[in-house]
Amino acid sequence: MAKEKPGKLEVKTFADHHVITQPNPLRKVLLRVPESDLDDPVGRAEKALAGLSGEFKNWMAIEADRLSAAHAAILRDGFSDDNREELFRAAHDIKGDAATFGFPSAGAAAESLCRIIEHAPDLDQVPSNLITHHINAIQAIVRERTKLDTAATAGVLSRSLRGIADEFLTHANRDRPEHLEAILAPSIIPAE
């Protein structure tokens, strides 16, 4: 099967330069669509997201319930490797999804909880109230997000938890300088 020869180059000569135009073989395969039939993929995506936006709160509630279930397993059975891992995964998923779903303060509280799980030398030595307060804060932020004036309170709560967690981790790791640098590194806690 022989390919068609491309059209000839067109050369326009001017006094001080030449303009060379080569033929565009794609013009033969280009499909012209009337303006009334134009597809707007960005518009379609925005419409799909708008349709899903009502589900975001439900998705976050499911994630928050998963976090509470992981915490309940720890209270019941202690910090086994599986329980620790499930608590970390649940908090980490909230940390990653919260801003997308419109709950940035829940993400900040979940990040603080992840830091505790990652950097505490012995989770059995972490005050149980510290973990409980993080989980209760995440639950409250997800539950109360739709009420007026909760965004500022959620931000203050997340920053307070982070400060308390950092203070605990600094004290708990005072003999582990390699961990202190990571613990004391600043992170951005979003304002809602």
Alpha-beta classification: mainly alpha
The arrangement of helices and strands along the chain is EEHHHHHH
How would you write the strand order of the largest sheet? 1-2
Distance linking N and C termini? 63 Å
Identify low-pLDDT runs: none
Q: How much beta, percentage-wise?
A: under 5%
On the 0 to 100 scale, the average pLDDT is 83
The counted number of beta strands is: 2
Shape: elongated
Query: What is the number of helical segments per DSSP (H or I, 4+ residues)?
Result: 6
Q: Determine the fraction of residues in helical runs and give it as a percent range.
A: 55-70%
Backbone CA Rg: 28 Å
- Biggest β-sheet strands, sense, barrel: 2 strands, antiparallel
What does this structure look like?
The protein has 192 residues and is mainly α. Helices cover 61% and strands 4% of the residues. The chain has helices at residues 41-77, 81-97, 104-119, 128-144, 150-172, 177-184; strands at residues 10-13, 18-21. A two-stranded antiparallel ribbon has the order 1-2. Strand 1 and strand 2 form a beta hairpin. 22% of the residues are buried.
